[in-house]
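Entry type: protein chain
Record version: 2
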Amino acid sequence: MKPYSEACEQNKQPILAVLQQHFADVHHVLEIGSGTGQHAVFFAAQLPHLQWLTSEVSELHAGIHAWLAEARLPNVSLPLELDVNQPDWPVENIDAVFSANTVHIMDWSSVENMFAGIGRVLQSQGVFCLYGPFNYHGSYTSDSNARFDMWLKQRDPRSGIRDFEALNDLAHQHGMRLCTDHAMPANNRTLVWIKSV
C-alpha cells in the first residue's frame, strides 16, 4: 500500500505553477526529502522535459518505490539515499533543486548542512526552490502558522518554522541570491534562489 500525504495532494497544483515558471529551462532536478513520492510522480508527469531525481533517508524508500512503480514514468529516478548531514552527496553538477516542507522538520544544524550541500552540487545559474511556511522579521505570518510551530516544537524542540532572513543569509553564504518569493495558499511560500557563482 502506498503512503499518502494530504498536504502533497493539496499543494501540488500551486507548486507546479511556480515550477513551470522556474524549471522551464532546467534538465535535472534533485528533490531533497521526497517523502511519500507523490510530488515526484506528479511533477515529473507534468514536466516531461526534465529528469526528476528523488532522494530520501533509506527508511522511506519503500513508499517512494511504490509510487514510482505505479506511475512508470521514464523521467523520474529511483530514490537516492541522501541525508543532508552526510559529507558527500550522491549527485553533483545539478541544475535545479526542489524541497518541500523540510526545513521546519530538521534541526538548524541540518538546515545549515542542507544549504551547504546545495551550494556544492548546484551548477552556476542553477535554481533552488524551497516550499513551506516561513517567518518574516521573527514574526508568524498567520495564527495557523503559530499553532503549527507550537505543535512542531512539542514534537521536537529542535524543529520549527524558520525565519526567511536566516535562510536567505545561508543561501548567500553558499553563492545563491534570492530571485523570487512567491506567496502560496495556506500561508506558505515558495522561495527561489539562483546560484550566482
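Comment: The helical segments are 6-22, 38-46, 61-71, 108-121, 143-155, 164-173.
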